[in-house]
Amino acid sequence: LSTQTWPLERMRDIFRQFQHECEHLLLFLKSVKEVELWQEDQAGSMRKIFSAHVEKAQDFFNMRSRLSSMLDAANRADIRSAVEAHLSELRCIVLVDVCLTTDGSEARRTWLIASHVDGDEVLKFSEQNSKEVPVSRFIPWMQLALPLQGSCDGSLFCFLQL
Questions:
Q1: What percent helix, strand, coil does the chain show, rounded to 5?
Q2: Is 82 exposed, middle or buried (0-12, 13-18, 19+ CB in 10 A)?
Q3: CA dihedral of 24, 27, 28, 33, whole degrees rounded to 10
Q4: What predicted TM-score, i.e. pTM, was given to this entire model?
Q5: Count of CB atoms within 10 A of residue 64's CB?
C-alpha cells in the first residue's frame, strides 16, 4: 500500500482504464468471476458505479477447474500420467457471456473461448527438465477469446502456473 495521495482526476482515469480492461480480465483471470466499483459521495453514501460478471459460464469454470485438477494430479504423480488423463478435457471450446453495468446501463457480449494444451510439448519439457523444476507449475495452457458480436478484436492468453 502507498501513502501517496492521488488527484481525483488521476483516480478517475485509472477507474476508466479498469472498466475498459475488465471484460478481458474476467475472461482470463482464473479465480475472478465478478468485480464491482463503488463510489462514496460527499454525504458518505455508497453507490455502485460499475460492475462486471460472467454468465452462462458453468462450462468455462469447469474448464478452469480441470486445469487445477491436472496440476494437482501432476503434483501427486508423474507429469505424463496427469497430462494423458486430462488432455482431451483441456482442449475445448465454450461460450461465455460477459455483462458490464455502468451507472445502471447494461451491456452484454458473448465470447467464444478456445482452450488448448499442447501435450507433446508439455511431455517433452517435463522429460528434459524433470530434475530442475517442479514440472506441474510449468504447464502452459492457452486460451483464445473472440467476441461473437461487435469488434472482431480477440485476445490470446497463456496460463503459466508459477
A1: 40, 30, 25
A2: buried
A3: 110
A4: 0.67
A5: 19
